[in-house]
Amino acid sequence: MNLLSSICQAAYGQGSYSGSESAVLRHVADCQTERMGVNSMDCESCGHVELHYNSCRDRHCPLCQGSLRERWVRKRLEELLPVPYFHVVFTIPKELVGFASINKRRFYSLLFRTVHRTLLSVASRSENLGAEVGGMSILHTWDQKLGFHPHIHCIVPAGGMDTSGMQWKGTSDRFFLAVRKLSLVFRGKLLSGLERCLAKGVLEGDPSKIRQALILAAKKDFVVYCKPPFGGPEQVLKYLGRYTHRVGISEQRIVQFEQGVVSFSWVDRKEHHARKVLSLPLDEFVRRFLTHLLPRGFRKIRYFGFMANRDRTISLKRVRSSIAASLSEVERLLPDAANVAVAKRYAQEREALYWNQCPLCGGRLSCRRQGESSFLPSQTSSPG
How far apart are CA 18 and CA 266, in angstroms? Predict the structure, then answer.
């Protein structure tokens, strides 16, 4: 049994958890154990037998994200455009964190809308880019110590469609949009949205404390930073594979679980990215882990601009044609050819990684027998 499963099994039934929290603890505790059932994989060449325990497939379980992530990334391969991509991150000050944790669905939704509108608004101004941008946004809610820290990661192509919607306007490989402008617009739009929610009485918590938090937050800079552009489509794919299906903590970061104490590694960026170990009592570790559960049915990956879901296929065809028209005759075929080659190589590498291969002879393993599953007894079966 892996350490995270042991931790969740020890915590299950001991604390006062909601139905969804109990369900997640039960799923992670059972994941890849005999309680989920077992598949017998027989080698077609040498007869070697491998036992593979089933996964829980809960979206909050770090053990289940690998195959889901690879299938999702493969679907995104054909959406890559032959231009550089920028990575833009939007964060909020600590004054907003308190009531954000008790208004998750409303706050997360507002955060997504504000980030999208900020990028579209700033980019559309003629003094900036003067074009409609598009991209993908991903919600993360944790920091290195598993604390609550909501922020949005955006993957944005370097350019957009002009006001006519027919011509591509590319940006510099080194500069996308001014982060100072993004920060100011982001702060104004988010605080205005929160004030409207407060006036309507739809935010949980003490209104006077929320209003005071908004006043304090208005005096702070909302940090927005734009990382250097990815070197090519391969780096974009690696980023997507690393960030899109990430959860609060991975099994690899858990160092030890003994005598009710969980120790896990974290990176201290203030000390030159030094790797350290933090030890927490079981109940505190589980509390932090459960803080990052998403509201039921909430989508943490979204699209905006010309990549919006409603017309992405048609829109991307128009964008790709416009990009090709803006290139020279020699350059026109090279970017797409590079994207196709990288995408194909990436898919082949990941397929080989998840292909069932005999460790003795290298032959193919086939599923011959399936065992029964036996979940932990549960007071609820509501999904996480």
Answer: 28
Q: Is 323 helix (H, G, I), strand (E, B) or coil?
A: helix
Condensed to tens digits (0 to 9), the pLDDT of residues 164-203 reads: 888 999 888 888 999 999 999 999 999 999 999 999 999 9
- The secondary structure of residue 132, as a DSSP letter, is B
Name the pTM for this structure: 0.85
CA angle 3, 240, 98 (to 5 degrees): 65
In a domain, residue 251? The reply is: no
- Residue 168 belongs to a domain: yes
Residues with Cβ within 8 Å of 150's Cβ and at least 6 positions away in sequence, in order, are: 92, 97, 100, 107, 108, 111, 139, 140, 141
> Nearest 5°: phi and psi at 23?
-65, -45
Indicate the range of 224-233, 262-271, 273-282 predicted with least confidence: 224-233
Q: What are the pLDDT digits (tens) for 48-101?
A: 887 778 888 888 988 887 777 777 887 787 788 888 899 999 999 999 998 899
CB 41 within 8 A of CB 367: yes
198 in any annotated domain? yes
Domain span at 143 = 82-246+296-329
Q: Show the DSSP H helices in the chain as ranges.
A: 3-11, 19-30, 65-76, 97-100, 104-124, 179-200, 207-218, 233-243, 282-291, 312-326, 334-354
238 found inside a domain: yes
Question: Cα 105 vs. chain centroid, distance in angstroms?
Answer: 16
Number of domains present in the structure of the chain: 1
Q: What is the DSSP string of 73-111?
A: HHHHGGG--SS-EEEEEEE--GGGHHHHTTSHHHHHHHH
**pLDDT tens digits, 323-357:** 888 765 434 444 454 455 555 565 555 554 445 67
Rg (CA), the chain: 23
Q: What digits encode the pLDDT tens for the residues 129-170?
A: 999 999 999 999 999 999 999 999 999 999 999 988 889 998
The 3-state DSSP class for residue 176 equals coil
β-pairing verdict for 85-91 and 168-170: unpaired
